[in-house]
Amino acid sequence: MDSGSMSMSNMDMSTTMSITMSTTGSPTSTMSGMSMASSTGSSMPMSSSSMMGMDSMAMVFFTSSSTPLYSWAWTPDTTGQYAGTCIFLIAFAAIFRALLAVRVRFYDFLALAKHRQYGGVSSQPLTDAKPISRPWRANEAVMIAMVDVILAGLSYLLMIAVMTMNVGYFLSVLAGVFLGSVVFGHFIANSAAH
């Protein structure tokens, strides 16, 4: 038995493997539908997507104006579309910081809204309000839970944008956090949670 047949003895070779030359002149291999036998005798399917090379999974920052964001449909084709995507990320991160300020000062905003609803004007600015012990109320708990879910969703979407490793997207998220902190940071700075 030669060395080539020994290394393939545990593989089901019912599929094909093709090697082609890419435009850069380096060989590219493609496998489709191959299954590999494990030591227990069962076979594990290997899709072509799981056979990506480690070099394509390298986590390094890069610059490109055509990096997809959230879906293949959202792939900028022009520099203007890329700039628009970066502006969107700045606004998105700033909105995240605004909602974070609302979440931190939720009970203060709620008390102020109820006070104004009944015709009163607060004698104390919102940033100077003292935290008070409140009884648990189902409607308030549901509102806080909704804000928490929205915050979690926004933070995960921002994380996905950063994980594209596109320098422009990364800097846009940071710029949005900076802008949101400048505009809404005073609400968080004076809270008991800070």
UniProtKB/TrEMBL annotation:
Any one Gene Ontology molecular-function term assigned to this protein's record? copper ion transmembrane transporter activity
TM spans, by residue?
A: 81-100, 141-163, 169-189
Q: Which key words are in the record?
A: Copper, Copper transport, Ion transport, Membrane, Transmembrane, Transmembrane helix, Transport
Note down the stretches annotated as region Disordered: 22-47
Q: Name one Pfam family in it.
A: Ctr
Q: Which domain of life is it from?
A: Eukaryota
GO cellular component entries: plasma membrane
The record's subcellular locations are: Membrane
Instruction: Tell me the InterPro entries matching this sequence.
Output: Cop_transporter
How this chain sits in the membrane, per its record, is: Multi-pass membrane protein
Per the record, the similarity remark reads: Belongs to the copper transporter (Ctr) (TC 1.A.56) family. SLC31A subfamily.
Protein name as it appears in the record = Copper transport protein
The source organism is Exophiala oligosperma
